[in-house]
Amino acid sequence: LLMILFALAVSVRAQDEANYFIEAEVNNLTPVVGQQVIYTFRVYSKVSRTQQGDLVDPDFEGFWQQDAGPVRRYATFIGAESYDVTERQIALFPAYVGEIEIEPAALLIPPGPSDGGEVLLTTPITMTVHGLPVVPDAGVFDGVVGQFEMEPTVDRQQVRLGEPVTMRL
Q1: What is the number of other CB atoms lying within 10 angstroms of the CB of residue 53?
Q2: 61-91 pLDDT per residue, tens
Q3: Cut 0.85: pTM above it
Q4: Where do the DSSP E strands lie in 46-133?
Q5: Residue 24 and residue 43: Cα distance in Å, rounded?
Q6: How far is CA 33 from the centre of its chain?
Q7: Residue 63, SS3?
């Protein structure tokens, strides 16, 4: 028992003292086929040399994909430690129903003057993709999922000939 507690303490201390780590997440683990899911990859760094690392994306098999905006850089605190964060987002669109696993992304850190290189991996992400809803016999399905309501409004009820009217939908 004492050996196990010592190993856990060393593991926690190593994580607390890490100069850099990576993570990946999605904003929805149970999407519908074709529904956009945002995959976010982050590099947390206390040292500048991780900016020189090479990112290896998963192959995103089972998804269509496109970039979801520019790379963001910002600072954050985790506990009492300050980290520089580099964040990248990719829009994914599941192509079929069922479980789809996103393989780990990797950050390849080149060797430094006093240490060897390192490979950091994210945790794999498993998503459960659902099918589109069943269409009632009387309805026509146009591919849109959800409930929508539209309401037209105008900025005034009475106008004179030639006056503009603003209509919003």
Answers
A1: 21
A2: 999 999 888 999 999 988 888 899 999 999 9
A3: no
A4: 54-56, 63-67, 72-78, 81-94, 98-102, 106-109, 118-121, 125-129
A5: 9
A6: 17
A7: strand
Gap between the Cα atoms of 130 and 84, Å rounded: 37
Q: Which residue has the tokens 């794999």?
A: 124
Interstrand relation of 98-102 and 125-129 (parallel, antiparallel or unpaired): antiparallel
Task: For residue 4, give the 3-state DSSP assignment.
Answer: helix
Cβ neighbors of 19 (< 8 A, separation 6 or more) are 45, 46, 47, 50
Torsions phi, psi for 64 (to 5 deg):
-90, 155
Contact assessment for residue 33 and residue 95, using Cβ atoms and an 8 Å cutoff: yes
Q: By the 8 A CB rule, do 69 and 76 touch?
A: no
Residues in the chain: 169
**Integer CA distances (angstroms), 41 to 22, 52, 144, in order:** 7, 16, 28
Query: Of 135, 124, 53, 63, nearest to 86 (Cα)?
Result: 53
pLDDT in tens, 83-142: 999 999 999 999 999 999 999 999 888 887 777 778 899 999 999 999 987 766 666 666
